[in-house]
Amino acid sequence: MNWTGELWQMLVVCFAAVFTGNILLTTFLGMCPFLAVSRQVKASVGLGFAVVFVMTCTTVLNWLAYRYVLVPLDLEFFRFILFIIIIATFVQFVEMVLERYSPALYQSLGIFLPLITVNCAILGASLFMVIRGYTFLVTLGYGFGSGVGWMLAIVAMAGIRQNMSMERVPKGLQGPGIALIIAGLMALGFIGFTGVL
Amino acid sequence: MMSADPAREMTASAPKGPKKESALGRAAIEGLWNNNPVFRQVLGICSTLAVTNLVLNTAVMCLALTGTTALSCLTVSLLREWTPHRVRMMVQTLIIAFYVILVDIALKAYWPDMSRNLGPYVGLIITNCIIMGRCEAFARSNPPVPSFFDGLFCGLGYSFVLLLVAVPRELLGMGSILGIPMPYFSTGWDKWIIMVMPPGAFFTLACLIWALRAFQARGEEESA
């Protein structure tokens, strides 16, 4: 495939990952932190940036590992373990580097990093990338787009929840219940983007 | 609710409540109802909510998850004496991943259509918070047999809620259950397509949590 074609495809995949195929609202990945850390906009922005960064880097790393290590060795079934190890190692490494060289950033982002290792959206993005057979550039776009989409969803959710805090919600629906209904309405809104592509 | 075999007494150290119950029965009630992972804690719905638009897919996924949880808890518990404290999370993850790989390979070999339907979600069982949560909270410090049943009932409690999500979704969205057309819903019913799309899962789960919590709150008031 020629270069510009692939670049164009990368942009399309990236856009699709942010809006129409939002990893949180259409594939339900990363729900646990989405429900737990979406009470305040500030915290959710911090977590969102951490996810964008980690997701972009790990999908690319996992693509390289899958394409150049697992496929030649015929060990594709081993990918779950390899991806998990790469993600955990990468997060640990970033945490150490941040702590050493940028204490300010570590203060604001660092507390979210351990949470990310168990965020299923990170592993999910890598598994989708393998199943859909993306090329390198498309994988880059997909990882970045998924991260941005996740961040968009959690920040919007936190904003809505902050404004909702004074509303009178039925007792059984308080907390996760109402959050799920908001997420459902957001998912409806995001489906509307389907016509754009 | 599901009744457990009360004849089976496992530990003598069980604290005696007002009603005398076996340890197995208590594990069952805890996992299925009191501490149900989904509607009490709203944990671990990520990897399975996506496949709840068809009852069959949900059932297979829940079966895989329950088996993985029970066997992982058993293995973690068996290895608890030899696992260094600092690396236990990594060991637990590897144990879980091992069982998930077995499930994935078995599905690919014997049921390739289902494997394609479930896509990446089988692999995502690894990051399901429930399994890790049970390993960390219970199996790590308890003998193998109670750990196995703890994991089993936690998985069953999870499955029962997700099946409750899947049945109305398939019924209202496609007019069938397990692919079999239902009498009224397949003919006279104007199908709610939204139910099989992602928003339907959010709405159904929210309503279910609402209903179950309201029911549970009433029970607690009565017993108090």
Which terms would index this structure?
heterodimer; A: 197 residues; mainly alpha; 9 helices; B: 224 residues; two-stranded antiparallel sheet; globular; disordered N terminus
**Helical segment count of chain B:** 8
Number of helices of chain A: 9
Classify the oligomer.
heterodimer
What structural category characterises the helix and strand content of chain B?
mainly alpha
User: Residue ranges of chain A: pLDDT <50 for 5 or more in a row?
Assistant: none
Radius of gyration of chain A: 18 Å
C-alpha-based Rg of chain B, rounded: 19 Å
Principal-axes geometry of chain B comes out as globular
Number of domains of chain A: 1
The proportion of residues in beta strands of chain B is under 5%
Largest sheet of chain A: none
Largest interface: A-B, 42 and 42 residues
What share of the residues of chain B lie within helices? 55-70%
Overall mean pLDDT of chain B: 78
* Widest sheet, order of strands of chain B: 1-2
How would you summarize this macromolecular structure in one to three sentences?
The complex is a heterodimer of chains A (197) and B (224). Chain A has 197 residues and is mainly alpha-helical.
